[in-house]
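At this stage, I wrote out one protein, both as residues and as discrete backbone shape codes, and that material follows here.
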Amino acid sequence: MQNLEFSEKIIENTRSQGKNSILVIGEEPVTKKHLYNIVQTFCTKNNLEQIRIDVATSTKIDSISSKFTNDLLFSKASLFKIYFLTSRITEEIKKFLICELERKNTDNFFIFYFKQNIKDFSKLSWSKSLKEKSLILEANEPTPEYFQEAVTLRAKFYNLSFTNDALFMLSELCQRNFLLVENELIKLQLIFNTDEIDTKKLAYHLSNGSNYDIFDLINASMTGNKKITVASLRCLYENGLDPLSINGLFAWIFKAIFKFKSSNNTSPSYNEFNSMRIFGSSQLIVKRSLKLLSKKQIEAVLIRIKDIDLMCKGINRGDPWLELNRLSFGLSRILNKTKV
């Protein structure tokens, strides 16, 4: 992912290395959009015409060769954006593009977009020829160990200031969905500009400023307040909150509960709570759940949370809102203080 720290200088730096193209491997949308904006700025500053070419299995040389003839009045070079719609490209197209890439005495620049991951791209018969003249830019979702750093970099890009806890919360609530993080950062930039964002502000605005926020739902569910649980769910649904964010907070809380329960720790210390990023009133919720829920019940909740996560991401069939209703109301019934 190149840390998403690159600017329009990426093209100049590539040229300084004797290369005249960038290979974009993968489909991660935030990276591709970031590069798109950089290309727009670079072409405007350097008076380059942008030419898009889509290459499919059936594409013939005659249909694209004319685009490489520069007869423009106002620019001396072009930036070619070449999208490969399939990995099955004819040999004549491959040879033609390599020839154009290796042409001397030209200021043209190329960006090749491949849908494959880097492993599959490396298996292509002409990948070696492309690599020799190109900078490789991988457009993939951040790995779990890198996700927090990637979110920090994007927040910095938008000049947003978060407390450490708020930044961690954003990552957790978005359940490692980088596109969802990006959308939230764009929205938060419009709201806060350079003001610092803490966990309270973040939770409020992630819930679109509704009468009930995500924490109201968590508190109600896990203290047995069935009336507020139902009202919170209805409010969050009507205000268009992404169910992935709600499920993410349940996951955050229950991962801590499961860890403490597995170690028979029913009264975690301040430092132990901090190590799991559980703060404020959430500590009381965790303590109460440790006393009232069995390990088997906690494991069942985590399985349900995982199922909802897969529904939100379109991997499993089902209605995530329906399942969130069942999860939240089920917890409120189990933990209702009149029954314990």
Summary: The chain is about 55% helix and 10% strand. The first strand starts at residue 21 and ends at 25.
